[in-house]
Amino acid sequence: MYRLAFAVMIGLSALLQSPAGGHADEKLTAAEIEILLEDRTALGNWRGTETRQYFEASGATVYLEKGGAPDEGKWKVDAAKNQYCSWWRRGGWACYDVETDGTTYYWVTPGDDYRSPFTMTDGRQMGF
User: pTM of the full predicted structure?
Assistant: First the structure.
């Protein structure tokens, strides 16, 4: 009986220490972000809208929301903060953490911790 109670306590302790969903998210390093994005397309969902974003090796990027017009910008990686940063005419530079749960990637918005899910595909794939 004592062993069973101890096992239950250990199990509950592990659950309480892990994030919601039972998985630990990993923040990518600057080097991992560059490898993930360069010459590839993110297929995502930004606050309920399907999106595509292509990242050129030159630092140019193209963003497209489903049903919208393409928007051209710039991208870089902040090595000191291990963040992805993008520049757009409508808002200037903004930086995001990039996390993964092992299956899906997430842009994590600073300040409000919004997590926007995305997957990656090779090359420029802007069609829906």
Answer: 0.78
